[in-house]
Amino acid sequence: MKESKKKLSLTVKIFISLVLGVIAGVALQGNAEFAVNYIKPFGTIYLNLIKMVVVPVVLLSIIQGIVSLQDIRKVGSIGVRTVGFYMITTALAVTLGLLFANLLQVGAGYTLTGEALSYEAKEAPSFIDTIVNIFPSNFFAPLANANMLQVIVIALFFGFGIILAGEKGKTAQTVVDSFAEVSFKVMGMIIQLSTIGVFALICPVVAQNGPAVLLPLLKVILVAYVGYLFHMVLVYSSAVRAFAGMSPLTFFREMSRPILFAFSSASSVGTLPFNMEATGKLGARREVASFVLPLGSTINMDGTAIYQGVCAIFIAQIFGIDLNLTQQLTIILTATLASIGTAGVPGSGMIMLAMVLESVGLPVEGIALVAGIDRILDMGRTVVNITGDAACTICVDAWDRKREARKH
Questions:
Q1: Tens-place pLDDT, residues 300-321
Q2: 122 φ, ψ to 5°?
Q3: Residue closest to 163 by CA, chosen among 247, 298, 57, 287
Q4: Cβ-Cβ contacts under 8 Å for 246 (sequence gap 6 or more)
Q5: CA 265, CA 344: separation in Å to the nearest integer?
């Protein structure tokens, strides 16, 4: 009985779908239009369903988590530790990206063709604007637009409201619990469609981005992925081992399903349901996971930070510009702050890269060089981002347990 269950595990099915999607994509390289027109829509439908359920799951589970903590100061303590963890790992990530890009000479041997490069950089909102935009003026708009930072703020206020209402808030708490349970069941139904979704998402990517697109920029992809893997293995393994006493092998084994889904979908928010399930199996309490993970899917950009470092050095070397130590330290600082400053902004990866390039005087047009392979890089950086969210959840949960143990 156990053997058949193991064979049919969803993780294995997703992996098989991923492999089949890659094979189908390779076979359809001569006819990428077919993959885009007739296979990709099923992936889009699946992602739409995931996104549909993510907002109620996040809203209701954060409210549940806050109410179960029963202490507004405790929520603040968890929040400060979470943001601190994310900012430190992001700084480490961009440092690693710069280190590998310099060591492996990511731009060496690539000759810039005479064609004019053009890239219109979107203006990033100022940090103050971002702070103002976190607070919604309408209850329903953030839910409709899936603006996760605003959804988190709504959940915080309503969670605090239920705590402060005392006995009169019990009915609201029961309603939240009931709707949360329904949302988790809906999520379970949608997750069962993962095999179809993963196949339909990966196939058109492979069909469109064949060797012709990848080969000239293969070194950028390889250096970025070396950085991704190194950061995950070194930083996250060390963090879960040191702060939570958890075996890195246990951590990555449970994270296999979210990692596979993140790689094929390139969506941090879409991977949230898988991440919540995985961190629960790893022992993190739901009230902690339901706060740390949604916040991470919005502001934690370790994978994006590695990509910034690699691309900045690549663009500098292509244009024959030497970046000194001060400029590279500026890149670390800018990328770390930009990860919070562009939180919740669509296409934030490209906006962050434009900000990083401008901070050290590199030509923003250089983004056009890596735009063609952005989806390939995005798949890897999403994996790093969501793995970092999970590592943070495990560590914050362990710190909170130790804090409670000291009280008693």
A1: 889 989 999 999 999 888 888 8
A2: -75, 140
A3: 287
A4: 240, 282, 394
A5: 18
Contacts of residue 97, defined as CB under 8 A and 6 or more positions apart, other chains included, come to 224, 227, 305, 306, 307, 308, 309, 310, 313
pLDDT per residue as tens digits for the range 193-243: 888 988 998 898 888 877 665 666 888 999 999 999 999 999 999 999 999
| Sign of the alpha-carbon torsion through 390, 393, 397, 398 | positive
Which DSSP category does 209 fall into? S
Gap between the Cα atoms of 220 and 107, Å rounded: 8
DSSP state string for 83-117: HHHHHHHHHHHHHHHHHHHHHTTTTTTPPPPSSPP
Distance CA 342, CA 347 (A): 9
- The span from the CA of 129 to the CA of 124, in Å, is 10
**CA-wise closest residue to 233 among 395, 388, 46, 337:** 388
How many separate helices (H) and strands (E) can be counted in the chain?
22, 0
Q: Give the C-alpha separation, 57 to 374, whole Å.
A: 29
Contact by Cβ (8 Å): 221, 99? no
Specify the pTM. 0.82
Tokens at 34, concatenated: 């077919």
